[in-house]
Amino acid sequence: MPTESARPGRLLDVVLVKGGRTKIRYEAELLADDGDRVTVRAPWAGDVARDFGFVRFEAGDVFTEHYWRGRWYSVKEVRDASGVCKGWYCDITRPAVLTGARLVVEDLDLDLWRSADGTDVRRLDEDEFAASGLTERDPQAAATAVAALDELERLALHGGFDALLGG
Q: Which distant-in-sequence residues (6+ apart) come within 8 Å of 19 by Cβ?
């Protein structure tokens, strides 16, 4: 199936949709597009720092984000302003859609965190996923989302991130 790919170096408008509405939109530099995986880089897009307790995202942080057209997740490597890796924040999403200079991803409320040293791997927002009603509205999508979270957790726990991200 043909896919639209993009030229590295150009800017994309990344749009994260949740519950049918735009949750966040930001500009990112396209690093690579192999027809399946789109990789972009962007500074922390939040207005203020966000402290999760296990990691803090703040001004100066840089996200290298990997989106797939055929996988139900995205993986975001987070580095601080000095380049030190904080870890990877992963969103369970429907496959990404790139149209022109717009990359759209639908967030499905499940997340995973893996610290830079690999000692902290945690599933996040399972309560939000349960409350979202996706299991009732679209049982197949819900099952695929849970399977994607399981896959990412296995990769995070057993050293599979390097292979996944091409490192």
A: 132
- Under 8 Å CB-to-CB from 52, ≥6 apart: which residues? 113
β-strand pairing of 56-57 with 62-68: unpaired
Residue-averaged pLDDT of the chain: 92
- Please tell me the distance from the alpha carbon of residue 58 to that of residue 62, in angstroms, as a whole number: 9
Calpha distance 118→153 (Å, rounded)? 11
- Pairing state of beta strands 121-124 and 85-93? unpaired
**Distance, first Cα to last Cα, the chain:** 26
pTM of the model: 0.92
Kind and range of the H or E run holding 30 = strand 21-33
